[in-house]
Design a protein that fits this description.
With 494 residues, the chain is of the alpha+beta class. It has four domains: 7-121, RRM (RNA recognition motif) domain (Alpha-Beta Plaits, 2-Layer Sandwich), CATH 3.30.70; 149-283, RRM (RNA recognition motif) domain (Alpha-Beta Plaits), CATH 3.30.70; 301-392, RRM (RNA recognition motif) domain (Alpha-Beta Plaits, 2-Layer Sandwich), CATH 3.30.70; 413-489, Alpha-Beta Plaits (2-Layer Sandwich). The chain contains eleven helices and 25 strands. The longest helix is centred in the N-terminal third of the chain and has 16 residues, at 113-128. It is globular, with a radius of gyration of 24 Å.
């Protein structure tokens, strides 16, 4: 997709024409298809949950905007989040990609006073730590200072509202961590926890009073007095999206099936035409008939593009994607070896892998990951050789998430330059491990054994890309004494 390239954005008059390959990461983001009546503050609010916003350029005539973040890291996090989850402004989908520009120079442009005023208001609140509880200030600016937990009441409940439907609606405003649904005073209610109170504020301002379906199922939203939710079971009534290992509970009748019976509805009777929130039909159909379903329905196959065709192997993708789920099959495309299909155990794992790995660098290239239209990866027909480009890992002993309740479910973190090592035998010293990692071509910045358990250690490498390559090469490395090294990304620094 070509970008409108204002001459003043970086002193460069070059106009890019036609389809271009995705840009490399930049702290400047290009936002397309913005509504005509959108405000500067609404554009800024897209970036706020991910870090400080430092500049903004609105091109309303072209339905575009450029948003500059304080750091490239913030921009990468924002793009990774919004790639699988299209953000909406005024109920209209908008699209975000990296810009060709490395920074925005808007000093000499006319009509920048509104954008600068909105930015100054945001920065004053964030640097001063002010807690403003009003929903809108100035140009509809969303400010934090409330609980990240919302209490929802659904009035005029004519059709069933499921936990999955709530998740899809509220995920448009930020990362939803937990949801608990219940009936109180004959009203369907829910508690919903965001990762950030700013997201909760944004959702409340936008969704309070909206109808989920045409002319019914009206959302009433207020902030909860709770600041965190304690979810014990993952089923159709409650869900902790950060803990895929939770049990499903005691198998009570599913909320949606019970409601459907009460309203005399078959599942197919739920309308595909939805109200102002414009949910996709898939949010409703196909999700109501499976009680206690912990994982999402949908595609478990992702398309990985912009790979380095000279060095990439199915095994490398199996190890890397295996950090975020159990990889069943990998296929590097025969005629286009910079592309590959990776099939995960379920759609939740596919989403996890995509959100964490999209935009990361591997062998000098920035990975692009999207959901594939394929439902599964086909193995080559018998007698047809594909040069080892397709591999089946369904029964691999290296799957990290086979055991229900495994601690691995609680230790899923974004890629980082610090790696967590485990299963280290007593005979292996810190020098041995430093040498081992240096042998992969990376530089070791720091190393530390865990004080209470010498079978585990942290190792900090020179860069994020070095850590990704080292994990691929050394996970399951034989250290002797029947010990195979376990490598994962760490949330801690040394």
């Amino acid at each position: 997709m070509s970008q409108s390239t204002p001459a003043t954005a970086n002193g460069n008059n070059k106009i890019f024409k036609g389809d271009r390959s995705p840009c490399s990461p930049s702290r400047v983001l290009h936002i397309r298809r913005i509504p005509n009546d959108v405000t500067e503050s609404e554009i800024i609010s897209l970036g706020l949950p991910f870090g400080k916003v430092t500049n903004l350029l609105m091109l309303k005539g072209k339905s575009q905007a450029f948003l500059e973040m304080a750091s490239e890291e913030s921009a990468v996090t924002m793009v990774n989040y919004y790639t699988p989850l299209t953000p909406h402004l005024r109920s209209q989908p908008v699209y975000i990609q990296y810009s060709n520009h490395r920074e925005l120079k808007t000093d000499n442009l006319p009509n920048q006073s509104r954008a600068q005023a909105a930015l100054q208001a945001v920065n004053a609140v964030h640097s001063g730590g002010l807690a403003l509880t009003g929903g809108h200030t100035g140009e509809g600016l969303i400010l934090s200072g409330q609980s990240p937990v919302l209490r929802l009441i659904v009035e005029n409940l004519f059709y069933p509202v499921t936990l999955e439907v709530l998740h899809q609606i509220f995920s448009k405003f930020g990362t939803v961590l937990k949801i608990i649904t219940f009936t109180k005073n004959n009203q369907f209610q829910a508690l919903l926890q965001y990762a950030d109170s700013l997201n909760a504020q944004h959702a409340k301002v936008t969704l309070d009073g909206q109808n989920i379906y045409n002319a019914c199922c009206t959302l009433r939203i207020e902030f909860s007095k709770l600041t965190s939710l304690n979810v014990k079971y993952n089923n159709d009534k409650s869900r902790d999206f950060t803990r895929l290992d939770l049990p499903s509970g005691d198998g009570q009748p599913s909320l949606d099936a019970t409601m459907a019976a009460a309203f005399g509805l078959s599942v197919s009777g739920v309308p595909g035409t939805l109200g102002p929130l414009a949910l996709t039909t898939s949010a409703i159909t196909g999700r109501m008939t499976i009680p206690g379903m912990a994982a999402f329905h949908g595609h478990s196959v992702v398309l990985v593009s912009n790979l380095n065709p000279d060095v990439i192997t199915p095994q490398a993708l199996f190890i890397l994607f295996g950090v975020y789920g159990d990889v069943h099959r990998v296929k590097i495309l025969f005629n286009k070896k910079e592309n590959a299909l990776v099939q995960m155990a379920d759609a939740t794992q596919a989403q996890l892998a995509m959100s964490h790995l999209n935009g990361q660098r591997l062998h000098g290239r920035v990975l692009r990951i999207t959901l594939s239209k394929h439902q599964s990866v086909q193995l080559p027909r018998e007698g047809h050789e594909d040069q080892g480009l397709t591999k089946d890992y369904t029964n691999s002993p290296l799957h990290r998430f086979k055991k229900p309740g495994s601690k691995n479910f609680q230790n899923i973190f974004p890629p980082s330059a610090t790696l967590h090592l485990s299963n280290i035998p007593p005979s292996v010293s810190d020098e041995d491990l430093r040498r081992l990692f240096a042998s992969t071509g990376c530089s070791v910045k720091a190393f530390k054994f865990f004080q209470k358990d010498r079978k585990m250690a942290l190792i900090q490498l020179g860069s994020l890309e070095e850590a990704i390559l080292a994990l691929i090469e050394l996970h399951n490395h034989d250290l002797g004494d029947n010990h195979h090294l376990r490598v994962s990304f760490s949330k801690s620094m040394i």
